User: Fold this.
Amino acid sequence: MDAGILTVAYSPLMPWWVIVAIGAIALAILVFGAVRRARGLILRGLAFAVGLAALANPSLIEEQRETLTDVAVIVADNSLSQNIGDRKARTEAALADLTRRLEALGNLEVRVVHAGNEANAEGTKLFAAIERALSDVPPERVAGAILITDGQVHDAPTADAIRNGAWRGTGDGPVHTLLTGHRNEGDRRVVVVRAPAYGVVGTDLAVTVRIEDATAAPGTMTVLSVVTDGVGERRIRLPVGIDADIPVTIEHGGPTVLELVAEPGRAELTLLNNRAAVVVNGVRDRLRVLLVSGEPHNGERTWRNLLKADPSVDLVHFTILRPPEKQDATPIRELSLIAFPVRQLFEDKLDDFDLIIFDRYAQRGVIPRIYLQNIADYVGYGGAVLVAAGPEDASPSLSLFTTPIAEVLPTIPTGRILTVGFRPQISDVGRRHPVTSDLLPPGVTSPTWGRWFRLIGAQTTGGTTVMEGENGQPLLVLDRVGEGRVAQLLSDQAWLWTRGIEGGGPQAELLRRLAHWLMKEPDLEEEALRAVGLGNRLEISRRTLAPAPVPSVTVTGPDGTEQTVALEPGTGGRSQGAAQVELSGLYRVTDGALTAIAAVGTLNPKENEDLRTTDAVLGPVAEATGGAVVWLAERAVPDVRRVADDREATGRTWIGLRDNESYFVTGVRETPLIPALLALALLIGSLVGAWYREGR
Assistant:
C-alpha cells in the first residue's frame, strides 16, 4: 500500500459561468471603490473572495493507491527448426538466464510461454502466443516481450501495423528478439511452385518445382528424385534456382502422392526441406462399357439398368437378335435392325472400352475368331471382360470356351446345367475379398437371401472363387490375366434378386462392385495397404486374401524415424491399427510387401520452407516497438533494465522493459476546505468589518 496522494478538487454549487460572472462583477466593484478611494475596500474584497470560494466548494482529495506489477512475457520457440545444431541448448540457457534476471527485478510478473511445437500449425506463430499470454493484461501494464527464436516466425505483424496501432499485443512495450542460430547459414530446399490438385486418369500433368540453395550459383545442376506412390524412383537433373516442370502421369483414381527429394548440397542445416510432396487426386473420365447380349432373357435388363444408373458409365449396348444364319423373306429396307459393327467395336475402338460384358452370348459366327483373339489380347494389355454365363456356355459348339477368349477364362465348362434351387454362398476367400466381403450384414455368417435356379457347371483352372453354388460348385470366379482382369458369373439368374423373389438379395451391390473391380477401382483391391492422417493420428488399414492377417507395419516419419505399429485383425480380411504422430509431412507405411504414403497435416509445412536463422522478419518489429535484436551466438544474454516510458529501451549491452508505474486506487477521502459554517462566519465577519470601517 502506497502513501496517500493529495489533490484539490472542486464541486461548484453553481455553474462555473455564473461564478465567473459574479467574480467579474465583484472585481468591477472593487476597482470602482479603489478609484473613489472608498474605505473598507480590503474587507469588501475579503467578503467577495470568501463568497466566491464558497460557491466553488473546494475539497481536499486523499487517494490511497496500491502499485500494480507490470507483466513481461518470454516466448521460447520450440518449433522443429530449433532442433538444428545448438539452437535448442542456446534457447534453454537463455531462457533460464532471463527468467532469473527478470524475477530479481521486482514489481514485475514474468510469464514464460513455449510456442511453435503444434504438430499441424501453419508455421511458427509466436505473436499469437504473446496475445494469448497477455489477453488478461491491460496494455498499460505490459512491460514488453522477449522472443528466443531462430527468427523464422510466420505471424509477425508488419512495422506499419505496429505504428498505426493495428497490432497492440504488447501495448507500448518493446519486443526484443534473441536469435539462437548463426548468421549466413547455408541450406538447400525444394520449393513446389505450382501443382495441380486434380488430374484425369491416363493423362500427363506437370508439377513445377524449384531447388533453392544460397551456397550454389544459379544454374548449377543437381539431381531431383521423384517417387510416385512410394515406388518407381526417377532421377532428374535440374538447375538450381530455376523453375522446372516435372512430368507426372495419373495412372489411377484417388490420391497420387509424389515425393520430390533433392540431393544434399554443400552446406546443409537439415535434409528435411530437401524433400517436398505433392498430392494429385486422380479422377476418372466417364468409363466406357460395351454390353453384348445374346438371346433375350429375363435378366438382360438387370445389367442394362445397373450400368445406366451409374452416372460415371457410358454404356454401349448391343443385343444380337438375328444371327447370320437366320433367313427370312423380310426385305432389308423394312428391317429395323442394324448390322452389328464388329470391325468398329473389336478392332478400331476396342481400346476405348474399360469393360466388355458378354451376357449369355453364344458363339454363332457373329464375331469372327480374329476379333475374339483381339479381345483376349485386350485383356492381357489391361482390359476387362465379364462373362455372364447362360445355358449356351454348357454347349461345346456355342460356348466362348471354344474361342480364343478361352485362354483368359478361369474355368472350363463341364457341359452340365444344374436346375434345382440353391442359395448362393460366399466362399471362405470371398469373405475376405472386397467384391463380396461386405454383402452380408455384420455378424451374419449364413445368407438368407433368395435362391437361384440355374447353375452352369464348370471346373476352375485358376482365379479366385468368391461365390459358390450347390455343393461348393463355382458361381463367381475372378482372375487377373496379364495387366487385365476377367470375371465369370456362372448363372443368369441374378435378376431373381432384382425382382425380390424369396426376399431378393444384394444384386445391385454385387454387380456394381464386380464391375468396378474389373475396372480397377482402387478401393476394391484385394491386397491393399492404406494410411490416412487424421489430426495427430495415423490410421492404418491392411487388406489381404491370405487367411493369416498381417501382424504389423513399419511407419517412417518425415524426419526418418521409424516405429512399428501392431495391427488388430478385423472382418473382411482387414487388419487395422493407429499411430500417434507429431510432425507434419509424408509418412511411409510398409509391411515388407506393400507400401502406402500418407500426408499428415500440411504436406509442405511453412516451418520447413526456410530453416536458416534470420533477422529479416523480427528486425522491423523490434525497430517499430523500440526493441533490440541480439545474436546469441555472437554475444552473451544481455542485461535487463526497467526504463521509463520516455526512455530508450535498448543499449549496447542491455535491453529494457517498460516501468509503467501503474496503480490501483483502494480508497478516497474527501475533506471540504471551506466548511459551510466557516464560510458563513468569514463572510459575515468581513461584511461587518467593512460596514464598520466605512461608518467611521
Observations:
- The longest helix spans residues 16-35.
